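tool=predict chain=A
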Amino acid sequence: MNDNASGFAAAAQPIAAQSVIRTDTEGLATGTIKLTVGGQEVPVYHARPAGQDKLPVMIVVSEIFGLHEHIADVARRFAKQGYLALAPDLFVRQGDPSTIPDIPTLMAHIVRKVPDAQVMGDIDACVAWAEKNGGDAGRLGINGFCWGGRMTWLYAAHNPRVKAAVAWYGKLVADPNPPGQPFHPIDIAPTLTVPVLGLYGARDTGIPVDTVERMTAALGTGTSDSAIVVYPDAGHAFYADYRPTYNAKDARDGFARALAWFREHGVG
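tool=predict ok
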């Protein structure tokens, strides 16, 4: 790959080399742009089928490790399916996750300092860029993992132009809500209108199954036609093929479900 997205080396994450998926760029146009949002340059990795326009748009939102090679690869996976995929570096103002040696420090020094409103604005800018550069924003989807899964739920509430969303193991509940994070997914569930598919693991110690059940009940009071799938044998980050948490069977099933969900709801 001859273009660089920021933070490609995820800090302190052992690589399971035998399982890492490498998606080639054959037939794709890929690169990194910089969008100016509120005076800040925000790097965005993008991938699309080469020479095509009027493409459905897919926003890919990273986990806490930011815009690294796995997230760029996910963008290419969507591009291979016919999408204009964009993966923004949403931590650029707070720091580079690849320089932080452990997760508690990363959470304290970068992740918890990122206001939700900042993320919503950066993704809005990605959508605006896509609309002017070969994307069909009338077919807009968003897909996020972990921290990005939570942001996916929130962005679906923030932007009703989103046709469908898929949130992989995003945190659903916080008590109390931290500064800069006025709402969590469970708070917006009753008024959500965008259909969101949640993909969760029953063995995820950071997202207890009872919170998933509470979210399911809250969604049931609304009209969004959202759904949640819980994989009995999966833990947290079961899609992350570069980490020991990877569960190949459930990851493949989850991605197939995600693609079907987007297409069912007009994103594809």
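The chain has seven helices and eight strands. The helical segments are 69-80, 103-109, 116-132, 147-158, 185-188, 209-220, 248-264.
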